[in-house]
User: Fold this.
Amino acid sequence: MKKVLVIAYHLPPSRKVGALRTKGLAKYLPEFGWEPIILTGLLPREPDPSFRVVENHLPYQKWLRVLTTPSWRARIEKVGVQPTPSFLQKVYSFFRGLVDIPDSRIGWLPFAVASGRKIITEERIEAMISIFGPATCHLVAHRLKREFPHLFWLADFRDPWTQYRPKSVRTGLERRLEIKTLKDADVLSIVSDPLAQDLQKLHPGKKVYAISNGFDPEEMAEKPTLPLTKKFTIRYTGSLSRRNGSLESFLSSLARMMRKGLVEKEDLKVELVGAEERLARPSISKYGLSGFVVCLPFQEREKVLNCQRKSQILLFLEPEGPGMKGCFTAKIFEYLAAGRPILAIGSPQSVVADLLRQTRTGILCSTTEEIGETLTGYYQEWQKSGKVTYTGVREEIMKYSHREMAKRFATILEERF
Assistant:
């Protein structure tokens, strides 16, 4: 089995959404002939013992928390991070991290490079995948590629680095850094075709692949094993963006339905699970929905997945801003695995709209009228049968599993060998 070094700052048990992409590679790449060794920072708890993980020092700006928290001190002692950083590396990490360009993890750079060098030498690594973000992961890979030019380097993006940022001095500096860093990458990958096309323009001459995010097939709801909610329950799970026009459209449509008597108030239940109340509350109050739309606190992942599976409808709010039409968030793939109808609100030209049509897992609405019509249809179906029918096509859904994602990465690596 060939070995690949995966440089990723986020890996479960980290709760960062980017950890899921790394987990998918760690879990399923071996099925396609590649043994991944994950290079990451110090994790809050032990990772999955079936993964090969090398943890090393956090940026030195973050060590005050480490030194004052017993659980973190215990992790340091247990992991015994190697190689032990020199005094100069620690000083460099501290002062370099004070200027957080390209990100606040830049102080991790010297420790990650030292560990990467050791892994490459001892494990006879043949290829390397770096996962953005943070961008520091690409800088680590860049340094290692310069030292070991024979390595095949795939630079992967969950999100674009500088393409859609507003113009500023910082954006200009990072744009030059991005171009310089990725000049040495053999190939690039990003989560959708539209984003791949834009990335190609910024890095002409580079081959850019589209590899979407996905879900763990082991978390796929085979058949409904959990009872659906008795009420007409609509659930959104996850955080909210500060620009939430999609939420405004949904709440406006819901309030209009209630005014027209198209839905009985005692039948309705809308839950925003993990959403920041300070961002949602003004809109909820604006439309007089305080008694019907509630914000619930963050829950552990397994509880969130169960919430999704019990829902009559799952609500997806497309992020707003430049490039967002080409953005696949991790949430939409969790929803695919949940096996419940999805009501998405966003652009009809987005990749999410295409995904829902392909998998038949839901409907994307772009206007308040469309939202109202769709909700009314769902509600009338619920009134007749006590549930909203799920019509997803399993064969199409499984194309977006972490296994298929890992297969795409492995195929690209195999092209070199």
